[in-house]
Amino acid sequence: MNAPLNPTDPLVLFMPSGKRGRFPVGTPVLDAARQLGVYVESVCGGRATCGRCQIEVQQGSFAKHGIVSSNDHISARGPKEERYDRVRGLPQQRRLSCSALVLGDLVIDVPQDTVINAQVVRKAATDRVIERNSPVQMCYVEVDQPDMHKPLGDLDRLKVVLDTEWGWKDLAVAPHLIPQIQKILRTQLPDQPPLEDGKWGVTAAIHRDMESARPFIIALYPGLKNEAYGIACDIGSTTIAMHLVSLLSGRIVASSGTPNPQIRFGEDLMSRVSYVMMNPDGREAMTTAVREAINTLIGKVCDEGGVSREDIFDCVFVGNPIMHHLFLGIDPTELGQAPFALAVSGALQVWAHDIDIKVNRGARLYMLPCIAGHVGADAAGATLSEGPYRQDRMMLLVDVGTNAEIVLGNSTRVVAASSPTGPAFEGAEISSGQRAAPGAIERVRIDPATLEPKYRVIGVDKWSDEDGFEDESWKTGVTGICGSAIIEVVAEMYLSGIISEDGVIDGSLAARSARIIPNGRTFSYLLREGREGEPRITVTQNDVRAIQLAKAALYAGVKLLMEKQGVEKVDTIRFAGAFGSFIDPKYAMVLGLIPDCDLAEVKAVGNAAGTGALMALLNRDHRREIEQTVKRIEKIETALEPHFQQLFVDAMALPNKVDPFPKLAKVVKLPERKVLEAAEGGRRRGREGRRGRE
Amino acid sequence: MNAPLNPTDPLVLFMPSGKRGRFPVGTPVLDAARQLGVYVESVCGGRATCGRCQIEVQQGSFAKHGIVSSNDHISARGPKEERYDRVRGLPQQRRLSCSALVLGDLVIDVPQDTVINAQVVRKAATDRVIERNSPVQMCYVEVDQPDMHKPLGDLDRLKVVLDTEWGWKDLAVAPHLIPQIQKILRTQLPDQPPLEDGKWGVTAAIHRDMESARPFIIALYPGLKNEAYGIACDIGSTTIAMHLVSLLSGRIVASSGTPNPQIRFGEDLMSRVSYVMMNPDGREAMTTAVREAINTLIGKVCDEGGVSREDIFDCVFVGNPIMHHLFLGIDPTELGQAPFALAVSGALQVWAHDIDIKVNRGARLYMLPCIAGHVGADAAGATLSEGPYRQDRMMLLVDVGTNAEIVLGNSTRVVAASSPTGPAFEGAEISSGQRAAPGAIERVRIDPATLEPKYRVIGVDKWSDEDGFEDESWKTGVTGICGSAIIEVVAEMYLSGIISEDGVIDGSLAARSARIIPNGRTFSYLLREGREGEPRITVTQNDVRAIQLAKAALYAGVKLLMEKQGVEKVDTIRFAGAFGSFIDPKYAMVLGLIPDCDLAEVKAVGNAAGTGALMALLNRDHRREIEQTVKRIEKIETALEPHFQQLFVDAMALPNKVDPFPKLAKVVKLPERKVLEAAEGGRRRGREGRRGRE
Questions:
Q1: What is the ipTM of this complex?
Q2: What is this structure's pTM?
Q3: What topology is assigned to A383-423+547-693 in CATH?
Q4: Three-class HEC string of A25-54
């Protein structure tokens, strides 16, 4: 959207967006940016007091763009900028774009982490640059003091100036502010921008909820209020993760997580639904628990970032459907049984106060839409983050937990499903399984010649075959196998010939290795004998079966979506979630969790759901984007696809062929009865224990 | 707004609106009405189950309109109407307009009090027919049950059908409903409309707040919900008055009033403001008191009307600026001192729950705009009710309380002011004054020949000179003079020559009447000696002075507005409020409260503020109408008009000339010092005790 070109006007190019346009000599750089749709924050309305609109001029000749840019092409620092520099400091190369005027061709750099707030520091989290268009805007104005000749109320005069200076039409006001307006307007703060006679300076926080609804004044402050924060939160069934973000600069101020206290009501999602069904106060108890944990976590990120929770004006939440419902106070019982009806699937906007979230009283809360009864707002967040619909290649997006949420598509078409992997990938239902925590085995290698293993343990720097491992590992102990290592150990067992293609541990190997030990009518692989007070760690035939079932469910779900898309290959794979972060893609492929794909195109993307929430927090266009996308996504209910059972049975074998698509007519090598039992068990567990996600 | 005419189509004329149009044979009468903008309620969406859309066909030849209307020109009763008749009864001449089809020319009568609810009866209150366009609409729909193939949430499917069947776009939902939606949809009621397979029948209450904002689902019921109520309330400083109204039929179900409990914090408005200034919790105590009284009053009208308070979905409130602020929880201190700044002057819309009004949890609350710091939402209500701006004649609208709110204008221009009449008209600051209550003298006549009075007492049927008065009046006592009688007694004293034009009681008359009695350096008129245990009732010189000051303030305010309008005469006068209802316009004119006007054009209109609230409740167009009107009204602040003092002094004399416009240069006959003292006192009392209204 470039401004109309007048070929004699200076050409201004903004980086990194690359937007450009010609503007008459004397145009403030801020105005030029706004006309081009380049996001440059400003709170003070061009008074050169908030310092939010800083830019830099790039010097030099930019032949590609036909621009020679220099400091001579921008007006010299004026008295307002000099004042700002004296009071708050303005680095030499920086300019306030509200005061700096275009004099000639310019290349302007809009620093992506511009400004301010010396106390906050950039934290880990995503490196992605999210274009900002926050629903919250801080608007400093100078309101006329009352005049008996024009008996407009204080609020009404505030609205007038918010219209004339910032263009806000038809503003509504958060009701709790009404009794406070007069006092706020009449409070004089020291060290505030100089005021004309008969004026009061205040900053209004304005929230634009939805395109079609009225903008609201949600908070009001005496003088210049130069801070505004938001939180983006992923409510996982195990962990709640949160970012605290400056809505003005876009920077992540703090990120943290906390266990979901609902675990005490039930480890996995279905047991929580059961708890609600069994206990009259169960729903309320779990809603209260998760909200309290979130409020505590808000306190934690605020402490970490040196921010007051009163300065949080906007919140975005994602979560799987059951977390979504419990957080909103909705009974999730319907989600535990066919037809798995969501109470609400569309995006929701409420006052944070309405659901007891302790931030600014006027803060809003946005919840991403759910895709389907088992594909939640977290999957929508991951979809927004990874954007299969924004690109042409066929992208597979997998988020593995108690169930796997699977999205497959490109700009033409996106399909989604969930598949009941069960909790095996998380170490549950595995004889030596445990959560990823110090003491857990996280990496495994097996020597095909000797069948001897080596492994690494979380919290210990050495491999088990390195000198000093035993000494070092005393501090953590060696207590079990975590989810990522289960994948590895089964894959290594297969690669070393301990288990066959049909998943049977080869008992005949007991003859040449003491690691193969009988266990009833089957055999186990002894990974570690265990020291005094430590468990013996083995991989049993049942463990292998559980992994087979889980991987078959995941693979069958992926395969079903590939069939829907009519493709035999995916171009790129994204593993979202904690499981995805630790798993080695190579072993996932060896084991046949995922279809064949160039390994370089398989990436772990961490908490993509949380990143999606962050995007929706910082840019309301992303809210419309994911709302529209979710409407377009085709939802596949695996339970309704007769073909799914066949795909599931076919996917039991280890590994899937190098041609990763087992023929549908393929003869399964397991005795037929066992396969059917296994498949039946998987489905049953699917119905009972399905639908988790961390 | 007539439909496009096809000259061969039948012509349909709707009464009483007179709207007409041609429609193809077979058009349902309800559709014809809607296309013409004729308001016909319907809850069930044309299923012939709610019975709200009843109409009657007028038989005969309507030559003026060129229509011959007969029952042959409408389809015969079909099976749906027959069923409705069997189940709920449909009078023979009545038809359900959703089922009756246009076959030929028709004159259709839309009964203004159509329908239903046998338990409610029409109560007193206004006779006005208010065209209905309530912000609340009850919409029965049949929602698709969930389908795993289309995993839209329950709320989302509800929205879809509210769009397809009722045309609601972009609906939002009141947050408290979100956790309830699934249960409501799944509740099956007996005796409900027959449902298709796979459908759930529910009724959504939809609220359209503002043109530019999203419509909200504010309540949701299983099956057909065929009732919806609203309240219109005038918060007076003395009395809170309320109507309970069916939003579907428009009928007033109950009307009642209750004393404003804030009286215990201060009799008049300024003493309540003082209470707030003196007591840290004063504002909160008064806010709580008035809200509790309103909640109790809601219970009372609901009991009277046989209505549940849960069925109230909309509320409209008016009140003077201080009542308005205290009700909303706003500190009114600013209104007690120049520049009398309102915190909010524009109309307000909030959830009733937000300000603790106990009705349906999703009910909305609308507060009319205030005109100025002393001309409140009550004056706006009266203006909406009487509509000076809707007609061409010059209308004077006066609402007298502790202050007088004065509106003068016509369709071209409207001006408004308040004038500090003080509490004399209400009987305060009058030696024998009291509230209008049993025992109070309410009518007075004085024989000019004998100077003997006769009077009537509230609660006694006879005049004081009739046989049996003394016996009858024992039950009430004779305790004082109420506001309306104070006007009369002073006017009668003037007409009988007891007081002169300058307001002095003529002491020389003591020679011929024992009713004239000395009282220090002045004289009093003895109205009644008083029996054992009853007070002696006199009118003192100070009483006459107080009335003179009050009437001068009122008259000067009126005169000021007449000068602003450039008129020397008003065409019509409306007295609003309790005082206006009891005052005899003749005496008001004798005394010079109001300018000269044809007595037939002087009307008491009762609680016009409450009627305005009622109009805004029943028709949201009236909300926009008064919002726009208030913006147009020119506010005159008497305190800022140097000329006002002169008008005030000039208006002290009794009566104003028959030419009711005292020349500005007129020589006041009172000794100048006294006049100035009196005027000064009036102004002082104006600042201290001003601004009341009942």
A1: 0.83
A2: 0.84
A3: Nucleotidyltransferase; domain 5 (3.30.420)
A4: CCCEHHHHHHHHCCCCCCCCCCCCCCCCCE
